[in-house]
Amino acid sequence: MKHLLEEVQKIFEAEQFLAQPEELYRPIDYTLRLGGKRIRPLLLLAANQMFGGKTDDVRHAALAIETFHNFTLLHDDLMDRSPLRRGKPTVYSLWGDNSAILSGDTMFALAWRYLLRRDHPRLRDILNTFNETAIEVCEGQQYDMNFEQRDDVTVPEYLEMIRLKTAVLLAGALKMGALYAQAPDGDIQRLYDFGIHLGLSFQLQDDLLDAYGDTATFGKATGQDIRDNKKTYIYLHALQVASPEQQERLRQLFNNESADTEAKVREVLDIYGRLNIREAVEKAIADEFDMARKCLDEVRAEEAAKAPLRELLETLFDRKK
Amino acid sequence: MKHLLEEVQKIFEAEQFLAQPEELYRPIDYTLRLGGKRIRPLLLLAANQMFGGKTDDVRHAALAIETFHNFTLLHDDLMDRSPLRRGKPTVYSLWGDNSAILSGDTMFALAWRYLLRRDHPRLRDILNTFNETAIEVCEGQQYDMNFEQRDDVTVPEYLEMIRLKTAVLLAGALKMGALYAQAPDGDIQRLYDFGIHLGLSFQLQDDLLDAYGDTATFGKATGQDIRDNKKTYIYLHALQVASPEQQERLRQLFNNESADTEAKVREVLDIYGRLNIREAVEKAIADEFDMARKCLDEVRAEEAAKAPLRELLETLFDRKK
Q: Peptide bond before B244: cis, by omega within 30 degrees of 0?
């Protein structure tokens, strides 16, 4: 996996993102140079090489998937008014709302430019995979925003939302990598399912880290979801196991603007603590990782070829940020 | 042309734009049902049929180009804070900023879904044409925003901005239509150039109508560009021919927020009147139309096949809204 990650880094280091007008491309360059985990291009390369692909054949697709992902971050951060991303100021907070909108739009188109750079016998399938994924990501973000206005979101609805918002893009990256390598359809589907479970566990981890992670390593302020009244998996799960009084109190806390937000964060974490929510969510995450492992087991490829994805899975399972 | 316009209307009437989540697709349906002139799909169909294409082969592309265009309108109206579009409230003013952002993003992806619906021997060329045009449109919008902050925009810079922001999409629609019909490369280029001149004249007309059009027929408030301190072609041309005193006064008026914006509009129009700006801009528009006509003359197709584009050209030349 380390080898693949270096390949991904090299791909991004070698790429020129600046162009004219500078006001449009500067925020794009800033965003794509911020780093981040580069998981999506990594997944694309890993799936591709599992079936004999070469980095040179898919570097454009690796750039595309990460550029698309960062486009969604620009717009999501603006819509959610998130001041920080990867520990650095977000684009809208540095250059204003309009920059985030327009540079984001341009990144979506730049992702397409990368994808169209090379022809391929299965190009239309690849492009369809990419685009249907993009539509699902938008739908997921809309459900996420809808849920902020609703008081009756269920755990299955929440899981479907994060499937769309987060998991399908990981799954789509794997599918695209496998399509480029012209893998058999069954294995493409197994890798896709692997990506869905990986994505779900990844997002549930994100919810957990928001509440229990360390600000310095996580790169975001801890407890932000609580401050934002976000009905995450933790909150929804807590509601399910809470006493009527605790339910009532949690709903109150998540439906009002608190004058003292830090006191609110402390009180919510205290209720979570008494309900052993952290342990329960860790169990749910481990279950999703198990399902991901099973999907990967079933892919018909050499064990050595699966090693990078196995390693990635275990690294993500242990992540602290 | 009337026949083609009816075809375009039918294509949009037959299409279903609503889906789940409703909060995402309602603004899309609203926008795509507002009507408008549908010039881009009309151009695409006209270019296609000039070389023997059939409506059924390109209806998906007609939907794509109009959906893309409307995506840019959603985001532009938000960035420019325009309350009205086609005489109706804009999406951000009805559903909020985040709806305009996210439904807009989704429309860009829906445009791609339409384009990918059918295979074609020249699909990659078609997709590249579409996407490079999209990037240019974003660049044009950025230049437009930059110009609001600048005091020294020249007429050639302004023309390049409107080429990117408006003309390339008309030209791109024509090129795509011709590519679908597998027209000869030379004719594709001539139609593209026809579209550039048509687009430039169209945008210069828009600038003129903003100052001199009738609010009821134009669907936007007259003088809005003056209120917004937009350095349009009219303003830049006026600066070129104004006396030093008039230049000074125009710059003052366009660099400050006026307490009495209606008095400002009147004073600017009064200066324009004394400089005969309206007539000069009308001349510039007529020159662009002439160049468009010449490009169309040079396309190697039957005169009967060119009739719809000729008619469109003359209709646009006479437009009042």
A: no
Residue B89, SS3? strand
Query: A307: which 2 tokens?
Result: 């090693």
Which pLDDT belongs to residue A230?
Answer: 86
Chain A contacts in chain B segment 97-126 (CB below 8 A): 97-98, 101-102, 104-106, 108-110, 112-113, 116, 119, 123-124
Of A82 and A213, the structure prediction assigns the larger pLDDT to A82
Closest Cα in chain A, distance from residue B103 (Å): 8
- What is the 8-class DSSP label of residue A144? H
CB contact under 8 A, A135 and B23: no
What number of helices (H) and strands (E) belong to chain B?
A: 17, 2
Q: Using the beta-carbon criterion (under 8 Å), do A116 and B105 form an inter-chain contact?
A: no
- Written as one string, the DSSP assignment of B241-306 is HS-HHHHHHHHHHHHS--SSHHHHHHHHHHHHHHTTHHHHHHHHHHHHHHHHHHHHHHS-S-HHHH
- Name the residue of chain A whose CA is nearest to B112's CA: A131
> In 10 A of CB B253, how many CB atoms?
18
Tell me chain B's radius of gyration from C-alpha atoms. Answer: 20
| Spatial distance between the Cα atoms of A68 and A64, rounded to a whole number of angstroms | 6
Strand runs (DSSP E) across A150-233, as ranges? none
Whole-angstrom CA distances from A142 to A130, A201, A203 are 19, 21, 16
Calpha distance B57→B61 (Å, rounded): 8
In 10 A of CB B239, how many CB atoms?
Answer: 18
Residue reference for tokens 């309900």: A275
Binary contact (A24, B142; C-beta < 8 A)? yes
Mutate which: B25, B81, B82, B105, vs A, most A CBs within 10 A: B105
Residue A84 β-bridge partners: A89
CB atoms within 10 A of CB A274: 12
* Whole-angstrom distance, CA of residue B63 vs CA of residue A47: 34
- How far is A125 from chain B, CA to nearest CA, in Å? 9
Closest approach of A24 to chain B, Cα-based (Å): 6
At residue B222, the pLDDT reads 80
Name the residue in chain B with its Cα closest to that of A126.
Answer: B116
Contact (Cβ atoms closer than 8 angstroms) between residue B85 and residue B77: yes
Q: Identify the CA nearest to B263 among candidates B308, B226, B230.
A: B226
* Residues of chain B contacting A98 with CB distance shorter than 8 Å: 79, 145
Residue-level length of chain A? 321
Beta-bridged to residue B88, according to DSSP, are B85
B111: its two tokens:
């445009």
Which of A235, A207, A234 shows the shortest CA–CA distance to A222? A207
Comparing CB atoms, the residue among A116, A119, A142 nearest residue B131 is A116
Residue A40's Cβ-count burial label (10 Å; 0-12, 13-18, 19+) is buried
Name the residue facing A21 among B23, B109, B142 (closest C-beta). Answer: B142
Instruction: Determine whether the interchain pair A132/B123 forms a contact, defined as Cβ–Cβ distance below 8 Å.
Output: no
Chain B hits for A145, CB-CB cut-off 8 Å, are: 23, 98, 102
Smallest CA–CA distance, residue B231 to chain A, in Å, is 18
* Residue A49 to residue A117: CA distance in whole angstroms: 20
Which residue of B26, B73, B99, B116 is the best one to mutate when testing the A interface, meaning the one whose CB has the most A CBs within 10 A? B116
pTM over 0.90: yes
pLDDT band per the 50, 70, 90 thresholds, residue B166: very high
pLDDT tens per residue across span B43-91: 999 999 999 999 999 999 999 999 999 999 999 999 999 999 989 999 9
Q: Is the dihedral of CA A284, A289, A294, A295 positive or negative?
A: positive
